[in-house]
Specification:
The chain is α+β, with helices and mostly antiparallel strands. It has helices at about 1-10, 15-25, 85-95, 105-120, 130-145, 155-165, 175-190, 195-215, 230-245, 255-275, 295-305, 380-390; strands at about 40, 65, 70, 195, 320, 325-330, 335-340, 360-365, 365-370, 395-400, 405, 410, 420-425, 430-435, 450-455, 460-470, 470-480, 485-490, 495, 505-510, 515-520, 530-540, 545-555. The protein is globular, with a radius of gyration of 25 Å.
């Protein structure tokens, strides 16, 4: 019965178009229609601005490393199926992002393209899934444009086949970032090829991009799936399209170019605004380092494509409110706290959501101290379940339950909704965040979690959690520390020390809670697991109740 309830409370949020597409895909697997015009022609264009490149070393061109897992192939022979590796690893093998590795030779890149064409006939496994197709189509076209030579006919015909396949297998069953990727691939393919098919792809892609930008990009410039990683990815997609559209002499007319440019500018600004003081994204929801390009590279690219001007350093305390997305930022020099109080994502596609409402990340002196757990993989198992759970985040867990019923790999049944959220500053050096969610209304006593975070300069954050409702409940409030820091319980609280023994932060726990230190795991990148420490402040008793703790930055005398 519980399983039936989870399915019901997941499926009831789907859109009719998704349900239709799901049924169609079950009854009629991926289309194999492959007819196309006999001549494959490409448009003659000027060269583009340089795309974002990967500067990482490539010590062995036949060793492929994705998600912190490596596999060596026999030179000249790629096992494109790689059934011994996780699905997301195999996807990365087929994406061809490595075409932009500066240290990989052109000869090797050309070998890989030819090998892929030879060993991946239409419809073959992971290689021909629509999302994988979308990324590879774009990467091949970007590479062909940037290398400035006409690719062999075999390559062009393969690419043409791939676009045909994608056109007939768009991901309306998933929608969200997948559908946007499909539209980007069709649009870029339409701008690359010539002929009736290309014009159709361009028109279809333009329509999808126009519709999905309106749907997916919120008023604050954030992506509606509320994953900073996927936000960064769509920003790069927008910049790539604008890059290709700005090809001078051919100057393809695209009425949506102005809207695309405005969306890209807002998206870049959003990205810069939410980054911590180390310059990189918070790890809310499904987010990890090393998937999207670095924020620094994206900002450099945005400067080239948009003339974007980066924000200068600001040593004065200030706040940033991204209300539609639900991110709230308090900055003071290199100290920053980023708070998450938004919906888990679009109701019809919360696949990348975590049960993390009212969680936060905190950096002191430019270094992350209180961290989000991140994400290890997209495989079923204990790591995936833990990463999405409430106990893996810096918020309050009630009766051992998740705020949102995250289950499976990408599913969410009943989910937490923010009741309100605000961030204000009434005087210099002071800021006040207030927020609440209803994720625990499904429990006996209909518990509501309200959180106040008050910042007072210099370096003091007061967190008050108010749990209202009825009955007796078990409450646990978590603080996950970066692996470089260790907590030590002392009289009056918990000292957070670095590996040299220096105290960077003092945590004064609630007077009505017991404090313990537990071991956890930090997943800053896919496939990377580091043991870390968690400060747990626990209370068992009746509600309403308030739990108040303070985090004080400690300055060691020089």
């Amino acid at each position: 019965m519980k399983r039936i309830g989870l399915y019901f409370n997941t499926v009831r949020y789907l859109r009719a178009r998704q349900i239709y597409a799901l049924i169609r895909n079950r009854l009629f697997p991926q289309s194999v229609a492959m007819s196309f015009e006999g001549t494959v022609a490409i448009r003659s264009v000027d060269c583009t601005h340089a795309f974002i490149v990967d500067r990482s070393p490539v010590p062995d061109e036949w060793v492929f490393s994705f998600l912190n897992r490596s596999k060596r192939f026999v030179p000249g022979s790629i096992d494109w199926a790689s059934s011994d590796m996780p699905k997301l690893w195999r996807y990365n093998l087929h994406y061809f992002d490595y075409l932009f590795q500066e240290k990989r030779s052109s000869a090797n890149k050309e070998q890989l393209i030819s090998s892929w064409i030879t060993h991946n006939p239409p419809g073959a496994g992971d290689a021909w899934e629509p999302y994988t197709l979308s990324l590879r189509i774009v990467n091949w076209i970007k590479y062909f444009r940037q290398s400035r030579h006409d690719p062999p006919d075999e390559w062009k015909r393969s690419l043409y086949h791939q676009v045909f396949w994608l056109e007939r297998n768009l991901e309306y069953h998933l929608m969200a970032n997948h559908l946007f990727k499909n539209g980007v691939a069709l649009c870029i393919a339409g701008l690359y090829f010539e002929g009736n098919d290309a014009e159709r792809w361009l028109a279809k892609g333009r329509g999808m991009i126009r519709e999905e930008l309106s749907e997916q990009i919120l008023q604050d410039g954030g992506h509606f799936e509320r994953s900073p990683m996927y936000h960064a990815i769509w920003v790069v997609d927008c910049l790539d399209m604008l890059n290709i559209l700005q090809l001078g002499s051919h100057s393809m007319p695209l009425a949506e170019a102005s809207s695309l440019r405005k969306a890209a500018i807002k998206g870049v600004q959003f990205l810069e605004d939410i980054c911590l003081s180390d310059g990189e994204i918070p790890l809310f929801n499904d987010a990890a380092a090393g998937i999207a390009p670095s924020t620094r590279d994206i900002l450099t690219y945005a400067t080239a494509i948009l003339g974007y001007v980066r924000s200068g350093p600001d040593n004065q305390p200030h706040i940033v409110c991204k209300e539609p997305c639900g991110y709230y930022v308090i900055r003071h020099d290199t100290d920053i706290i980023v708070i998450d109080c938004g919906p888990v994502g679009p109701d019809y596609q919360p696949g990348h959501a975590h049960a993390d409402t009212l969680s936060f990340e905190l950096a002191l002196d430019g270094r992350r101290v209180v961290v989000d757990t991140g994400v290890y993989d997209y495989e079923p198992g204990s790591r995936r379940a833990y990463a999405r759970s409430t106990r893996a985040h810096n918020t309050v867990c009630v009766d051992g339950q998740d705020q949102s019923e995250v289950w499976g790999v990408f599913r969410v049944a009943r989910r937490a909704y923010p009741l309100y959220a605000s961030l204000t500053s009434d005087r210099p050096g002071h800021a006040l965040f207030l927020g609440a969610h209803d994720g625990y209304h499904r429990l006996p006593g209909r518990v509501t979690h309200e959180r106040m975070i008050e910042y007072a300069s210099p370096g003091m954050w007061t967190v008050r959690d108010t749990l209202s409702g009825k009955g007796e409940h078990s409450l646990e409030s978590y603080l996950h520390l970066h692996p470089e820091y260790e907590p030590h319980i002392v009289a009056g609280g918990v000292e957070v020390r670095d590996r040299t023994g220096r105290v960077h932060m003092m945590v004064e726990p609630p007077a009505n809670a017991t404090v313990s230190i537990q071991s956890g795991f930090y997943f800053p990148e896919f496939g990377k697991e580091i043991e870390n420490s968690i400060i747990v402040m626990a209370y068992r008793g009746r509600v309403p109740v308030a739990l108040t703790y303070r985090m004080l930055k400690t300055v060691t005398p020089q």
